[in-house]
Amino acid sequence: MFPPSADDGAAPATAGAARRPDPAALAARIRTLVREAGFQRCGITGIDLGDDEGHLRGWLARGFHGSMDWMARHGDKRSRPQELVPGTISVLSVGLDYGRRDDVEAWETLADGERAYVARYALGRDYHKLMRGRLQKLADRIAAEIGPFGHRVFVDSAPVLERALARNAGLGWIGKHTCLIDRDGGSWFFLGELYLDLPLPPDPPATAHCGSCTRCIDVCPTQAILGPHVLDARRCISYLTIEHEGSIDEELRPLMGNRIFGCDDCQLVCPWNKFARRHDEPDFRARNNLDTAGLAELFAWEEDEFLRRTEGTALRRSGHARWLRNIAVALGNAPSTPEVLAALASRRDHPDPVIREHVEWALARHAAARPLAAARPL
């Protein structure tokens, strides 16, 4: 029996009353419905994650999750689907593409110190709501054909080892940067799951094809990828700009460049993304010109404007205070232009002490650089 849950799109479940088709035929039909629901990839797997459980325990023991206490809060439920949702015997893993043909533009933004870099996934609509809605509609369509069945919808909403499940379902392998990579689709896609009480035949798991490549490890601005498949989230820019509260370590600030929400460097350099097919999902198109916006422009947003402009997007996750903190760091790494210095000065008396601290750090960084610039011969 699958109990309903208010925060993960679950539906009450009862034993199926209608006659169900042969498991192989049902799996084939589900794949058709997945495509019709708007997902570009899918696979089916069982619930054995024993090897991944050991890796997760070791990662947590080393403290690599930083302040993300929720990573350890649920014990082994993350790696034991049948404990998280009793009755689960199969998992349907789906992928929704968000990658755009803008790699060149992304690198140009990263090279322009006065512009803001926002991770590609966060430029448009929040994928969580979009995928949850599609997955629930998918479950409803399945139920309409076979009768009620036990299921739970997950999109980064509960302790789920989504990448391990997706790998086992054949959607791709876990790369050295810990992102999932598909030979034909690269890594620019979101993951979602349906936990099922249906006995479905599993797909073959994906095999790894990173070979000897270490581009993702070498390019990481803060060297957060300590080795193949080992990410220290405490140094990861995505963690620092989105999850981490309070002050950012001063040693890491200069390494963050102009990245104000997330980081894509490890994906941008991945050879498998160079030839990947891209899918233009209208909901994921950039809002508020965030793919070209300047740091000073975004730093001027007051909280009401921030909330209005980020409504329905993943950017809300940072909150206005962290948004300003992150941009203050980026402005500290920007060229010492009048616009940059004026933007920082405008927030010097901000009531939040963390924001003031990062503004003062940024201004001191510019002040230290000016004598050096003046001393250079013409």
UniProtKB/TrEMBL annotation:
<feature type="binding site">
    <location>
        <position position="216"/>
    </location>
    <ligand>
        <name>[4Fe-4S] cluster 1</name>
    </ligand>
</feature>
<keyword id="KW-0963">Cytoplasm</keyword>
<dbReference type="GO" id="GO:0052693">
    <property type="term" value="F:epoxyqueuosine reductase activity"/>
</dbReference>
<feature type="binding site">
    <location>
        <position position="78"/>
    </location>
    <ligand>
        <name>cob(II)alamin</name>
    </ligand>
</feature>
<protein>
    <recommendedName>
        <fullName>Epoxyqueuosine reductase</fullName>
        <ecNumber>1.17.99.6</ecNumber>
    </recommendedName>
</protein>
<keyword id="KW-0408">Iron</keyword>
<feature type="region of interest" description="Disordered">
    <location>
        <begin position="1"/>
        <end position="21"/>
    </location>
</feature>
<dbReference type="Pfam" id="PF08331">
    <property type="entry name" value="QueG_DUF1730"/>
</dbReference>
<feature type="domain" description="4Fe-4S ferredoxin-type">
    <location>
        <begin position="200"/>
        <end position="229"/>
    </location>
</feature>
<comment type="pathway">
    <text>tRNA modification; tRNA-queuosine biosynthesis.</text>
</comment>
<keyword id="KW-0819">tRNA processing</keyword>
<dbReference type="InterPro" id="IPR017900">
    <property type="entry name" value="4Fe4S_Fe_S_CS"/>
</dbReference>
<feature type="binding site">
    <location>
        <position position="270"/>
    </location>
    <ligand>
        <name>[4Fe-4S] cluster 1</name>
    </ligand>
</feature>
<feature type="binding site">
    <location>
        <position position="180"/>
    </location>
    <ligand>
        <name>cob(II)alamin</name>
    </ligand>
</feature>
<feature type="binding site">
    <location>
        <position position="191"/>
    </location>
    <ligand>
        <name>cob(II)alamin</name>
    </ligand>
</feature>
<keyword id="KW-0411">Iron-sulfur</keyword>
<feature type="binding site">
    <location>
        <begin position="263"/>
        <end position="264"/>
    </location>
    <ligand>
        <name>cob(II)alamin</name>
    </ligand>
</feature>
<comment type="similarity">
    <text>Belongs to the QueG family.</text>
</comment>
<comment type="subunit">
    <text>Monomer.</text>
</comment>
<dbReference type="Pfam" id="PF13484">
    <property type="entry name" value="Fer4_16"/>
</dbReference>
<feature type="active site" description="Proton donor">
    <location>
        <position position="156"/>
    </location>
</feature>
<feature type="binding site">
    <location>
        <position position="156"/>
    </location>
    <ligand>
        <name>cob(II)alamin</name>
    </ligand>
</feature>
<dbReference type="InterPro" id="IPR013542">
    <property type="entry name" value="QueG_DUF1730"/>
</dbReference>
<keyword id="KW-0004">4Fe-4S</keyword>
<feature type="binding site">
    <location>
        <position position="236"/>
    </location>
    <ligand>
        <name>[4Fe-4S] cluster 2</name>
    </ligand>
</feature>
<keyword id="KW-0170">Cobalt</keyword>
<dbReference type="InterPro" id="IPR017896">
    <property type="entry name" value="4Fe4S_Fe-S-bd"/>
</dbReference>
<feature type="binding site">
    <location>
        <position position="238"/>
    </location>
    <ligand>
        <name>cob(II)alamin</name>
    </ligand>
</feature>
<feature type="binding site">
    <location>
        <position position="213"/>
    </location>
    <ligand>
        <name>[4Fe-4S] cluster 1</name>
    </ligand>
</feature>
<keyword id="KW-0846">Cobalamin</keyword>
<feature type="binding site">
    <location>
        <position position="266"/>
    </location>
    <ligand>
        <name>[4Fe-4S] cluster 2</name>
    </ligand>
</feature>
<keyword id="KW-0671">Queuosine biosynthesis</keyword>
<feature type="binding site">
    <location>
        <position position="263"/>
    </location>
    <ligand>
        <name>[4Fe-4S] cluster 2</name>
    </ligand>
</feature>
<feature type="binding site">
    <location>
        <position position="210"/>
    </location>
    <ligand>
        <name>[4Fe-4S] cluster 1</name>
    </ligand>
</feature>
<keyword id="KW-0560">Oxidoreductase</keyword>
<dbReference type="InterPro" id="IPR004453">
    <property type="entry name" value="QueG"/>
</dbReference>
<comment type="function">
    <text>Catalyzes the conversion of epoxyqueuosine (oQ) to queuosine (Q), which is a hypermodified base found in the wobble positions of tRNA(Asp), tRNA(Asn), tRNA(His) and tRNA(Tyr).</text>
</comment>
<feature type="binding site">
    <location>
        <position position="220"/>
    </location>
    <ligand>
        <name>[4Fe-4S] cluster 2</name>
    </ligand>
</feature>
<keyword id="KW-0479">Metal-binding</keyword>
